[in-house]
């Protein structure tokens, strides 16, 4: 039998260069209908920028993307059923650079004893979006409703309204949030914690693991759950080992967009060989001895294969690891379209929660 994802069988833009998210027969029609309302089911106009364009132009592109996509995500979130039985509070901690970091702490009201915690790192290519966005508030509260404490970290971005703060600012803030949560387990009423995030937050999730290992505090974290991780920094290359980059290019997100946002996280390209900047650089030695992981990917995502590649390398390194593929969905589609695919969204919430609970 030919492999599902390989040159022997052609899918997406490998089968038809003109294929779009809306015309690909693998796409979940509920997702396509939701995206079509905003013209996100088809090909998007080329962006008149490159990674070598002036920094101010790339920052302006990121700000525009943050405003436009943030509005769509928040509208989708507002259409989903609102979570009840969860209370969210905030606290502020001081980061290693003397900056203030807001943490959003969501707890189920019915909790009667200590619970596992999920430290959540939001998506946006480490460049845009906010933990205060409606979409992320709803996501964290939905996750908390499954019986875990969720701590959302408002880290500094490399662009947008919380930028510009390139690497390692955002990673430092995420690490500070994780370490504060671990140090305050008794006060928070938690037993242990995992780190979880999607897209850019998936890269931050995995790079926190490498930073923790490098600095000697990996034991403070029970596991890592990375969703549609944005980790290779190879989006403009011809990558035979990552066929999804071309197969699903411009399905909701494009390799050009990915590269532009990545160029803001490391604008001088001076950290292109640092595993705490890009998790996809991990060596076998970097991966050895890691705690349990889950790597979740979306079938119709340009980033699908870099996530699967990382999953396979974790397994080969002897790390207890589960791989998860969500058919019919684009990049983060299981998280974005909960208003039209609630069972898919709920399954993801249960899986993150179940992983956290399994490590107690």
Automatic annotation (TrEMBL):
InterPro entries named in the record: AB_hydrolase_3, AB_hydrolase_fold, BRCT_dom, GDXG_lipolytic_enzyme
Keywords assigned: Hydrolase
Pfam families per UniProt: Abhydrolase_3
Matches recorded under SUPFAM superfamilies: alpha/beta-Hydrolases (SSF53474)
Domain BRCT: 191-253
Molecular function terms, GO-annotated: hydrolase activity
PANTHER family, per database record: AB HYDROLASE SUPERFAMILY PROTEIN C4A8.06C, ALPHA_BETA HYDROLASE FOLD-3 DOMAIN-CONTAINING PROTEIN-RELATED
Protein name as catalogued: BRCT domain-containing protein
Source species: Mycolicibacterium moriokaense
């Amino acid at each position: 039998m030919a492999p599902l994802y390989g040159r022997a069988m052609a899918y997406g833009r490998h089968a038809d260069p003109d294929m779009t998210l809306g015309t690909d027969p693998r796409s979940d029609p509920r997702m396509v209908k939701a995206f079509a309302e905003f013209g996100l089911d088809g090909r998007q106009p080329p962006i008149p920028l490159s990674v070598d364009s002036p920094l101010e132009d790339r920052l302006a592109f990121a700000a525009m993307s943050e405003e436009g996509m943030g509005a769509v995500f928040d509208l989708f979130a507002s259409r989903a059923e609102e979570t009840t039985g969860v209370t969210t509070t905030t606290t502020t901690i001081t980061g290693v650079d003397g900056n203030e970091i807001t943490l959003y702490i969501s707890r189920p009201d019915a909790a009667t004893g200590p619970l596992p915690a999920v430290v959540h790192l939001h998506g946006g290519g480490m460049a845009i979006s906010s933990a205060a966005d409606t979409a992320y508030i709803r996501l964290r509260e939905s996750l908390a409703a499954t019986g875990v404490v969720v701590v959302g970290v408002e880290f500094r971005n490399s662009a947008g309204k919380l930028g510009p703060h390139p690497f390692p600012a955002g990673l430092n803030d995420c690490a500070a949030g994780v370490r504060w949560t671990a140090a305050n387990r008794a006060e928070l009423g938690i037993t242990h914690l995992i780190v979880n995030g999607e897209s850019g937050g998936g890269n931050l999730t995995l790079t926190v693991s490498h930073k923790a290992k490098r600095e000697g505090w990996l034991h403070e974290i029970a596991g890592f759950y990375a969703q549609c991780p944005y980790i290779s920094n190879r989006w403009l290359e011809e990558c035979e080992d990552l066929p999804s980059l071309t197969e699903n290019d411009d399905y909701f997100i494009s390799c050009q967009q990915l590269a532009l946002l990545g160029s803001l996280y490391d604008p001088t390209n001076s950290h292109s060989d640092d595993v705490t900047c890009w998790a996809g650089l991990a060596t076998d030695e970097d991966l050895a001895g890691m705690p349990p992981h889950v790597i979740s990917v979306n079938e119709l995502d340009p980033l699908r294969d870099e996530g699967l590649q990382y999953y396979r390398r974790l397994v080969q390194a002897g790390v207890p690891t589960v791989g998860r593929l969500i058919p019919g969905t684009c990049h983060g589609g299981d998280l974005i379209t909960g208003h039209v695919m609630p069972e898919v969204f709920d399954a993801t919430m249960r899986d993150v929660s179940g992983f956290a609970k399994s490590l107690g």
